[in-house]
Amino acid sequence: MERLRRNLVLALALGAAVYLTLAVLSDLDRLGAALKDFDYALIPAILGLVFLSYVGRFFRWLYYLRVLKVPVPVGVNAAIFAAGLSMTISPGKLGEVLKSVWVRRVSGAPIARTAPAVVAERATDGTGMVAWGFLGAFALGLPPWTMLIFLAVAIFGIAVLRSKRLSLLAQRVLSPLPLVGRFAPHLTDFHGASNELLGTGPLVVGTVISFVSWGFECLGVYLCAVGLGVDLDFLTVVFVFAVSSLLGVLSMLPGGIGAVEAGLALQFVAVGGLARGPAGALTLVIRLATLWFATLIGIGGLLLVRRLLGAAPLEAHAGEDLPH
Question: What is the rounded CA–CA span in Å between residue 64 and residue 187?
Answer without folding.
Answer: 19
